[in-house]
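Researcher: Please translate sequence to structure tokens.
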Amino acid sequence: MPWGLYIEVADSPAERGRHVLPEVDEALVRSAAASVDVPRTWMKMPAEPEEIEPWLPQGWAWEESGHLMAVDLVASAPVAPEGYTATVEVIGAVVYVRVLDATGEPAAQGQMALLGEATVVDRVVTEEAHRRRGLGNFVMRTLADHALDQGAVLGVLGATDAGRALYETLGWKKHATLAECVYRP
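Model: Translation complete:
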């Protein structure tokens, strides 16, 4: 894509895919928005929403603003908290970490894609019943260790307000506001 990356999202009722624009330029934003004809397609870019809003055609809505964050990756050899087991699976260029509780039910997960010396972390979630037990921390550190093993040195992600607090405890720093909008004709 001339304006950035497109990521297909297969298992989310709220999102079909997303365009990620690494730079903000009116022509690029307008071009990316005009290319979308599938509802529930998102666009995310490092910008303040007020800056981008006048460039969007009808059908686009602001959902939220996030935080573009980055960190220099550090190895930590994480161990799953007691009572939990973890798996790491690689499918194509995407690495998935899944954490199960003692009964085999999903407790937490996260994924990342390697892009040369950088890794993009995405969809880190801890189920409500398992929060405050260190699982998000464990998932993030497991992803970081795997990325380092593959030659990455930099981690990048888009965080919600709630996620930002976790990531900051792991050394991640906010570099920009992340404007996020969705196509809903």
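Researcher: Any highlights?
Model: The longest strand covers residues 60-72.
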